[in-house]
Design goal:
Length: 457
């Protein structure tokens, strides 16, 4: 086709895949439906990204940008008339700057590779998530991903110092500064972080690094009440003096199910408690950190705040505890038609929200296959997952739960984005004026609407 031939002239003969050849590829990690698109283009430089977008803008050719293809909201869904753009060839990673504690990475760099490069330099990249082995820098920035350590280091947006991106018409905006303080006008990078590729294509970033902790201490708690969980979070934030990096809550049904699936013979804590928390602290005092951590855990147990505690005594035990939180294949197998709700709520309303969700599902959709709730409690982020045997009532379940989120004044997306899956519920968390302003920004930066059309708004 003429348009693919033109794209080949920009990026090279071997870096464009015909749409017919894409049909053997799944749409994304979560969806086995064949990919439908006009073709896939793989630029190898920012100049090629610019040329591709300039060409597509002139011809009003829609473009969908791909990262690691593990998003949960169908953000890379394409139709047969759309061109997919993969940034996998933009995978250059500069050596970390150990003095300034920064690193420059192209959009196609895999998150885990970035983490390892920082680690080898005695530094830490402050973002971690389960898809670390496939997620890319461009993907996590375009969705403003959160993950396990946002409690301490913040979300993806908080890791960015400078950014390079390409507008729909091919204009390159490059402000790759390696410093924190820069009040020279509008901070344009924040327009593109979290915009899911609808305003511009992120091609490179200067990212903040941190000193690599010298110690890690991990514990798993059981609690009899949600109030006790919240109290423990408050206690640990104070007693551990800023070293608390993860505080992952699991409701009973999820914990009991996953323990039975991944470690039935030797669960770290007995099943049956209402709440479980996996917490982790990372510090810089090898002589004192473990002692201080264990003393804090002991106080929580002795005071009755926690009902049971196990402290990991080895890296193997730590990995086994984390596996209960991170292993999702058994859940995928259980929930034939999975419905995952990634929400933010005030901590003060979480318990009531989950209780009401369970009651509503039992009453309105009694054939549901269960309710699993986990989350990054310190960030106000819960993952609420249920499933159905078939998709007939999927829309009804979505309407019920998103309606609850609206009533509790929560966010319909804490860290996964909006994409296609949540677009029709955006007004549950954003006002009409906010959405209208989003449309104005989209129209100004992408007047022909070629960038990820149909996503978010």
């Amino acid at each position: 086709m003429a348009r693919l031939a033109e794209l080949r002239s920009i990026v090279g003969q071997h870096h464009v895949v015909d749409g017919e050849d894409l049909r053997s590829r799944a749409q994304d990690f979560w969806n086995n439906v064949p990919t439908t698109a006009l073709g896939l283009v793989k630029p190898g430089s920012v100049e090629e990204v610019s040329a591709v977008l300039s060409f597509c803008d002139r011809r009003v050719q829609p473009v969908i940008v791909e990262g690691g293809r593990t998003n949960l909201v169908h953000a890379t869904l394409a139709t047969p008339d759309m061109v997919l753009m993969s940034l996998e060839r933009l995978n250059r990673l500069q050596p970390p700057n150990t003095d300034g504690m920064t690193v420059e990475a192209e959009a196609g760099v895999v998150l885990e590779n970035l983490q390892l490069a920082a680690q080898k330099s005695g530094l830490r990249f402050g973002l971690d998530l389960g898809a670390r082995g496939s997620a890319t820098v461009g993907g996590v920035l375009s969705t403003n991903a959160g993950g396990f350590q946002a409690l301490r280091y913040g979300v993806a947006r908080d890791q960015v110092l400078g950014l390079e991106c390409v507008l729909a018409n091919g204009t390159v905006l490059s402000h790759l500064v390696p410093y924190t303080k820069d009040n020279s006008g509008y901070d344009l990078k924040h327009l593109f972080i979290g915009a899911e590729g609808t305003l511009g294509v992120i091609t490179k970033a200067v990212l903040r690094l941190h000193p690599a902790p010298q110690t890690v201490n991990t514990a798993l708690f059981a609690f009899d009440s949600f109030g006790a969980v919240v109290g423990a979070l408050r206690t640990m934030r104070q007693a551990l003096r800023g070293t608390l990096s993860s505080f992952e809550i699991m409701w009973r049904e999820f914990y009991d199910f996953n323990v039975a699936a991944v470690c039935p013979a030797a669960p770290p804590l007995p099943i049956g408690f209402p709440y479980y928390v996996l917490c982790e602290a990372e510090g810089f005092a090898p002589d004192n950190d473990a002692t201080e951590f264990e003393a804090t855990m002991a106080r929580l147990l002795e005071s009755g705040a926690a009902s049971d505690i196990v402290v990991a005594q080895s890296s193997r035990q730590r990995a086994d505890i984390w596996r209960i939180r991170e292993e999702f294949q058994p859940e995928i197998d259980l929930f034939k038609v999975m419905l995952d709700f990634d929400v933010s709520l005030p901590i003060s309303t979480m318990e009531a929200f989950v209780d009401e969700t369970a009651t509503l599902l039992a009453k309105e959709v009694p054939e549901n296959l269960g309710l699993h709730v986990i989350g990054h409690l310190g960030d106000g982020n819960l993952h609420v997952t249920t499933g159905l045997a078939n998709p007939e009532r999927k829309a009804e379940v979505q309407k019920l739960i998103y309606g609850l989120i609206r009533r509790y004044r929560g966010s319909i997306s804490a860290e996964h984005g909006i994409g296609v899956a949540k677009k029709h519920f955006l007004d549950h968390s954003r006002s009409a004026d906010e959405i209208a302003t989003m449309r104005m920004i989209k129209s100004a930066l992408d007047p022909n609407g070629i960038l990820n059309p149909g996503k978010i708004i």
